[in-house]
Amino acid sequence: MHRSWAEPWKIKMVEPITMTTRDERERAIHEAGFNTFLLRARDVYIDLLTDSGTSAMSDRQWSALMLGDESYAGAESFYKLVDAVRDVYGYEELIPTHQGRGAEHLLSQILIKPGDVVPGNMYFTTTRFHQEYAGGVFVDVIVDEAHDPSSDFPFKGNIDLGKLRAVVAEYGADRVPYVSFETNVNMAGGQPASMANLREVYDYCSAHGILVMLDATRALENAYFIQQREAGYGNRSIADILGEITSYSDGATVSSKKDNLVNIGGFLAVRDPEIARRARALLVAFEGLHTYGGMSGRDMEALAEGIREMTATDDHVRARVGQVEYLGRKLIDAGIPVVRPIGGHGVFLNAKEILDHLAQDHFPAQALAAAIYRDSGVRGMERGIVSAGRDPETGENRHPNLELVRLTIPRRVYTQSHMDVTAESVISVYEHRHEIDGLRFTYEPESLRFFQARFEEVAGG
Ligand code: F0G
Predict the structure, then answer these.
(1) SS3 264
(2) Structural domains counted in the chain
(3) Are strands 117-120 and 137-140 parallel, antiparallel or unpaired?
(4) Tens digit of each residue's pLDDT (9 = 90 or more) over 118-140
(5) Binding-site residues, ligand 1, Cβ < 6 A
(6) Distance (Å, rounded) from C-alpha 142 to C-alpha 203?
(7) 455 is a catalytic site residue
(8) Per annotation, catalytic residue among 78, 267, 450, 455
């Protein structure tokens, strides 16, 4: 007999959300220039813009806030965070930052020289920005399957060793300061790397004197997929698998706004005390003193608790990814083109296929995200040509293969009924997809343009 699962928590406090009328949503999306980032949150019904900083904290985390030690230097909360990161991720040296991009900034500035090349498994927007800002060039070395939304390959986050070797052969190991290895690759659809691949990349890099720096922002979700899919890991705990993932690296940047179950915070963690020393020298200039970086004492308390909670049992991550799979399964059953397999943090709609009457230069994913908002007040995010930006050399638009709308599920926030409402809206928009017009820029920011760009509709485009 089929047995259902339920979330391993119950609700102690609720936050009302408002349902809007179609007229109100029409007005709101026009005022937002068809960019879901520019909507006011009060005009959103179910907010699937991001899983970043949107988690619900537990009662233990809320009570931990009261223990925050707000001493400028040497706060007890910092040492609790150091212990949690060492116990769960296995890194000795902790550099706390205000969020993930703060850690990316420090790492890029200390390790990348102008002209260096940084291979990585698909770009992430802020990560690549900081690599380029430090004078480096990002080179994508992810496996080809990652660029194919319909491939069912279980480890689409893997690095292609052949591509990595070719980069090292072309530029020389001394121009490759580190490999930027993201766990559960966000832009590929929340897709994991296998343990075998993590191990192989680390062995190769160690032999060539190249560091491996993880973006371990969603390493917990990656650990879950390894447990479910990789031979030999089915009986290992999530905590144990996560520890093995990070053992194949020299350090990591983490945005704690995801796996770590807090609303703000992040860190750079490394093994080498000399790299940590250099990072701390910049930390005090760009973030704050080395024992708080970019966080208050209470933020560090809640974060230390969140890091321990996420691995305390396997139930949390199972329910978290299970809810994403629940939404994905509903859409697959309705015949909606989505990235497969369903990822760890969201369901990614294949806008290129859904809106195949639109040219990519008319921003199908941006238009689809706006259409879903108009239909139901569900807010998703464009992850396609707008996010990919322009090539800094040529100034031309990059044309990524993946033109996606991400419906990202916050952790411990929504119920399965919210997933049902979301699925019904996406299905209804899909049925009327031929009525959706393309878009063009009315304002295009110079960098990270997706955050603040504005658009207008191109009739018939
Ligand atoms: N790395 C990854 C893989 C991310 O997904 C993010 C943020 C960052 C780094 C940067 O961290 O936001 O704390 O500065 N991703 C958010 C998202 C913004 O919606 O996917 P941050």
Answers:
(1) coil
(2) 2
(3) parallel
(4) 999 999 999 999 999 999 999 99
(5) 50, 52, 99-101, 124, 126-127, 182, 186, 215, 217, 255, 257, 266
(6) 17
(7) no
(8) 450
* 2 within some domain: no
Identify the CA nearest to 433 among candidates 383, 375, 368, 384. 368
Rounded to the nearest whole angstrom, what is the distance from the C-alpha of residue 87 to the centroid of ligand 1? 23
Q: In what helix (H) or strand (E) does residue 224 lie, and over which residues does it extend?
A: helix 219-229
The whole-model pTM stands at 0.96
Q: Where are the alpha helices (DSSP H) in 297-410?
A: 297-312, 315-333, 351-354, 364-376, 385-388
Of 310, 335, 370, which residue is a domain's last?
Answer: 310
Q: Which domain holds residue 28?
A: 22-51+314-458
- Examine the residue annotation and report whether 124 is marked as an active-site residue of this protein: yes
What is the number of helices (H) and of strands (E) in the chain? 16, 14
| Among 80, 101, 258, 308, the one annotated catalytic | 258
Q: Quote the ligand 1 centre to 430 CA distance (angstroms).
A: 28
154 φ, ψ to 5°? -75, -15
Question: 202 and 146, same structural domain?
Answer: yes
* Ligand 1 centroid distance, CA of 257 (Å): 8
Whether residues 26 and 174 fall in one domain: no
Domain stops at, among 291, 310, 329: 310
- Cβ atoms of 144 and 163 within 8 Å: the answer is no
Q: What is the pLDDT of residues 164-218, one digit of tens each?
A: 999 999 999 999 999 999 999 999 999 999 999 999 999 999 999 999 999 999 9
- Given the CA of residue 266, which atom of ligand 1 is nearest to it? 13
206 lies in some domain:
yes
The DSSP-derived string for 15-61 is: -------HHHHHHHHHHTTT-GGGS-GGG-SEE-S-SSS-PPPPHHH
Most informative mutation of 36, 48, 124 for ligand 1 (most atoms within 8 A of CB): 124
Cβ neighbourhood burial of 170 (10 Å; 0-12, 13-18, 19+): exposed
Name beta bridge partners: 212.
179
Question: Which two three-digit tokens encode residue 158?
Answer: 């893997």
Q: Give Cα separations from 90 to 151, 180, 238 (angstroms).
A: 34, 18, 14
